[in-house]
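Tokens for Thiol peroxidase. Go.
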Amino acid sequence: MAETKFKGNPIHTNGDLPAVGDQAPAFTVTGANLADVTLGDFAGQRVVLNVFPSIDTGVCATSVRKFNELAAGLDNTAVVCVSADLPFALGRFCGAEGIENVSVASTFRSDFATDYGVKLTDSPLAGLCARSVFVVDADGTLVYSELVPETGQEPDYDAAVAALG
């Protein structure tokens, strides 16, 4: 079980995050249009997974905006922003914010959070995803993994982009 913090207090996930160098776990999440989104949909592309608790918090919204800006300059790279929010909320946010360079996806009918070891098991956020970032290369190998140490902190955008090589 991995540990992060919520307002300075330790909180835990359901397990360990996948290790850098391993094949990224396959997943199926639900896109804003209610269609399935799978890792296989991005075969041959690099994938950045921006994982967060809820689009309705300031830091989560900021991470989606920031990755949207970064994605505009990334070749052969898909950025997928993943949370437990319903697809409708994710789509509404992207529409209102003019978010066009990233995809959003919901874990609401998925084992994604469990399979990636980011499902929070305690605290007021139990059941949501821990703030984390994963980078998968074009061959499906995990080349970067970050569990953000404090839920209220933004991820290390520079390190994620650097992992794309």
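The chain is about 20% helix and 25% strand.
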